[in-house]
């Protein structure tokens, strides 16, 4: 039963990844049971499955995955999995997700995880500031 569940989740993840790599203008319909499968995969004992599910949840920007990903980022012993969770949280981009990445940049005991979280957070700030500059430019042009 366990291997069947793992096989189904991996099949979904690979299928979703192949659709995501297709035509970027196509809208992909994501069903709730697919998201549920990815969330279940985060609780697996299989490191590769957990990492792949975290990746896909980030790519799909599933806001319902923020809390489970935060738990992985804060509590998992595996550095690679914590990094995958941080990247997924960065891609989801909600204030709670970004704050979790910021806090891990400051407090994670692993220098590697901390450094990558800081990189993700700095990239977020860079994009945010760039968007604000574009907005300000548009406002200034409108006033002229």
Shape: flat
How far apart, in Å, are the first and last alpha carbons?
A: 67 Å
Low-confidence stretches: none
Bin the helical content.
over 70%
Assigned CATH class: Mainly Alpha
Instruction: Please count the beta strands (DSSP E, at least 2 residues each).
Output: 0
Strand composition percent: under 5%
CATH third-tier fold name: Leucine-rich Repeat Variant
Order of helices and strands: HHHHHHH
Q: Structural class, from helix and strand content?
A: mainly alpha
Number of domains: 1
Describe this structure as you would to a colleague:
This protein has 144 residues and is mostly helical. The protein has a single domain, classed as Leucine-rich Repeat Variant, CATH 1.25.10.10. The protein has helices at 2-20, 32-41, 47-59, 66-75, 79-92, 95-107, 111-143. The radius of gyration is 17 Å and the shape is flat. The mean pLDDT is 85.
């Amino acid at each position: 039963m366990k291997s069947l569940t793992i096989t189904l989740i991996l099949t979904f993840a690979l299928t979703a990844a192949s659709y995501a790599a297709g035509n970027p203008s196509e809208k992909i319909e994501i069903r709730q049971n697919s998201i549920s499968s990815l969330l279940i995969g985060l609780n697996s004992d299989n490191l590769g499955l957990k990492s792949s599910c975290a990746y896909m949840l980030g790519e799909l920007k599933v806001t319902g995955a923020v809390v489970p990903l935060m738990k992985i980022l804060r509590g998992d012993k595996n550095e690679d999995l914590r990094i995958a969770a941080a990247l997924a949280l960065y891609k989801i981009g909600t204030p709670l997700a970004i704050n979790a990445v910021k806090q891990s940049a400051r407090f994670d005991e692993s220098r590697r995880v901390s450094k990558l979280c800081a990189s993700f957070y700095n990239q977020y700030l860079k994009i945010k500031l760039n968007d604000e500059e574009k907005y300000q430019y548009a406002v200034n042009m409108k006033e002229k």
